[in-house]
Amino acid sequence: MWGVYLEQLLQSLPFFLKGLWMTIAVSGLSLVAGTAVGFLWGIVRSSRSGVPKALIGAWVDVIRGTPFLVQIFILFFILPEFGVHLEAFPAAVIALSNLAACFICEIVSAGIESVPHGQREAAVASGLNGYQQLRHVILPQALRVMLPPLVGQYVLLIKDSSVVSAIGVVDVTRVGWLTVQRIPQGILVFGLVGLLYFAICYPLIQLSNSLEKRLGRSSRR
Amino acid sequence: MLETFNFRVILEYLPLYGSCLLATLWLSGAGLAGSLAVGCAACALRTSRFRLLSLPAAAYIESIRSTPLLAQLYFLYFGLPSLGVPVTETTVGILALTLNSGAYMAEIIRGGIQSIAPGQIEAAISSGLSYLQRMRAIVLPQAIGITLPPMLGQAIVLVKDSALLSLISLMELTRAGQILTSERFMPAEGFLTSAVFYLLIYYALKTLTVWSRKRLIYLHTG
Question: Nearest residue of B to residue A160 by CA position?
Fold first, then answer.
């Protein structure tokens, strides 16, 4: 009996690979946008500017305090009431980018704060302006601390992208959900789904671990 | 647009939200208790010297950490019945939260135990303390202080993760939002109210985390 199902499953493998491509597309786009916005927010957050800093802090708290599923429902179901109609794919990318930006913002500001204060003072004394201080003194050192958790965050991003299947984005989780209606072998179908995620996430987790070992354990805590 | 925000409907549905808040707390509480037990066991096996024990534990931890909770949830939800195991949605939900969180708990506990300087354990051994005595008097009091903040962080993650259980039609806070959306067609009222309740839990747990971090510093210096 399992043999028949296995054969059917292998026949729908192209469908799964299409879903995998969607997962990669959603998380890849969100990764780029989330990193860019997250760096910007993180730099603002570790600066002395009062109001933007407080606003970002409050926003990060709201996003970290609510489930991603609720966030994506709010974006997908509420915006149409305001006349903004989003397809499932852009809604998914926007919600996931925002989530990533919030977590990356925390990593970036922690990384910047880990750079000893004397470094900035020395940069100021050398006559570097604000941008030059960040670009040549602070960020290169902060990056060492930020890199391992950043890669770890990308793994979380790929895993969180499975939630966008709830609004109908046909990613690999959604493909599994659709397939299991046809091939009623949950272990087999979602075993394959899990295997596909594993193939992407496991190497990234190993990369994060080895980066952490190589760049020193100072990033923890 | 806020003037059309219907607070009366929210008030009308408040009893539903109340019971759903309790459901979210109970589901994630059960998941937390389960994951502590699973985490301790998995950590003990993982750090064992026998590969026969440590390899399966490592495989469990790594496969959970490399796959999304939603895929794990569907794996159990569709998989257990296809194996002929009759389970309710609640059991599947708590089981998925437990197994998922258990892997992260195992890593947190391992980190806590490994953060204790080996010299202390050597000193304890040469003082003639047995394994259980060492654990009770030297390792655990320190490890608990170190692991408490990340465990509270994991509790926050658990509460948020329990939202996914609405996708297998369990009653909890997110489901309450879906019900308001489908019965009254008011997604703004429905999901924003759910979000507010989640934020209440989040801020309570966050305060606890801040407190435990302060307490941790106290433990280290005192």
Answer: B68
SS3 track for chain B: CHHHCCHHHHHHCHHHHHHHHHHHHHHHHHHHHHHHHHHHHHHHHHCCCCHHHHHHHHHHHHHHHCCCHHHHHHHHHHHHHHCCCCCCHHHHHHHHHHHHHHHHHHHHHHHHHHCCCHHHHHHHHHCCCCHHHHHHHHHHHHHHHHHHHHHHHHHHHHHHHHHHHHHHCCCCHHHHHHHHHHHHCCHHHHHHHHHHHHHHHHHHHHHHHHHHHHHHHHHHHC
Element (H, E) at A33: helix A13-45
Question: The pTM is what?
Answer: 0.90
- Map residue A108 onto helix, strand or coil: helix
Q: Are B174 and A69 in contact (CB under 8 A)?
A: yes
**Closest CB to A191 among B1, B75, B195:** B75
Task: Check CB contact of A179 with chain B, cutoff 8 Å.
Answer: no
* Residues B189 and B180: beta-carbon distance below 8 Å: yes
Taking the C-alpha atoms of residue B182 and residue A205, their distance in angstroms, rounded to an integer, is 40
Measured distance CA(B194)–CA(B178) in Å, rounded: 9
Token pair for residue A101? 């930006």
| Residue A161 pLDDT greater than 90, yes or no | yes
Residue closest to A27 by CA, chosen among A105, A104, A93? A93
Instruction: List the one residue out of B93, B99, B94 whose CA is nearest residue B42.
Output: B99
Indicate the angle between helix axes B51-65 and B14-46, nearest 10 degrees. Answer: 150
Nearest residue in chain A measured CA to CA from B188: A78
Per-residue model confidence (pLDDT) at position B18: 94
Q: Which of B74, B101, B157, B198 to mutate to test the interface with A (most CBs of A within 10 A)?
A: B74
Is A171 a residue whose pLDDT tops 90? Answer: yes
- Measured between beta carbons, which residues in chain A are less than 8 angstroms from residue B203? 65
> Mean per-residue pLDDT for A168-175?
94
Q: What is the pLDDT of residue B212?
A: 84
Residue B108 has pLDDT above 80, yes or no: yes
CA distances A165 to A156, A173, B124, B125, Å, are 16, 6, 53, 53
Looking at this predicted complex, what is its ipTM? 0.90
Query: Once rounded to an integer, what is the mean pLDDT over residues A65-78?
Result: 93
If you search the block for the tokens 């004394």, which residue do you land on? Answer: A125
